[in-house]
Amino acid sequence: MLLRRTTSLEKRLGYRFRRPELLAAALTHSSYAHEQADGEPAPGHDAHYERLEFLGDAVLGLVTAGWLFSENPELPEGELSKLKGHLVSRPVLARHAQELGLGDELRLGVGEERSGGRRKASLLADVWEAVLGAVYVDGGLEPAAALIRPLLAAALERRSAAAADAKTRLQETLQGRGLPLPEYRVLDSIGPDHAKRFVIECRIGGEARGRGEGRSKKAAEQAAAAAALEALA
After folding, report:
1. Which of 1, 62, 80, 204 has a CA-to-CA distance to 21 between 20 and 30 Å?
2. Confidence band (pLDDT; 50, 70, 90) for 42?
3. Which domains does the chain carry?
């Protein structure tokens, strides 16, 4: 059964493991490994996903930074850092994991299963990084990067689409919750007149809830509204 599910996942990943035990480890929670070893010597660290997650996190960071650097030659370091922070954030990684169906593939201990581990964003994000670590160990950097790059482009496209009308969605969200409408304040303007960037803060009920930058005040307000929506989620 595990082999059949693993083969299906390999098809979704577009990568076939030479050492399928690496993928099995990436999908194994420590609670499952310890339960299986009940009455036996404690399982090794590579019997579950945590070491692979550590490696996958580094691979993801490197590939994401390189991709952003190449795709956005006009952006300064600060903007690149913000985009990178979004692309490697827990919600974004958890969404990748959900789209790949990783939750259904997990091997969980009884307690973790009962607590809804297959749907936990933190666990799904960790396992996605573990899968990337497994691909890196099995095939090297390029196969791992080939998995990551299309997801980065899709995540940025979703972010741009969400930010396009973030002010309207924020206003609707606040009205639905009975909260005061947002206020937008210009905090700073950076650069020469022909390439000025604005920094705007979104405040709700007098409290700062989001900050955004843009080449126009309108764009910066949309970015600040999007940040506020994330804070309210």
Report:
1. 62
2. very low
3. 2-163 (1.10.1520.10), 165-232 (3.30.160.20)
Supply the DSSP string of 114-165, one letter for each residue: HTTGGG-HHHHHHHHHHHHHHHHHHH-HHHHHHHHHHHHHHHHHHHHHHHHT
pLDDT > 70 in the chain, percent: 92
CA 91 to chain CA centroid, nearest Å: 5
| Model pLDDT for residues 127-138, shown as the tens digit of each residue | 999 999 999 999
Contact 15, 139 (CB under 8 A): yes
Active site residues: 57, 129
CA-based torsion, 191, 193, 195, 201: positive or negative: positive
pLDDT band at 179 (very low <50, low <70, confident <90, very high): very high
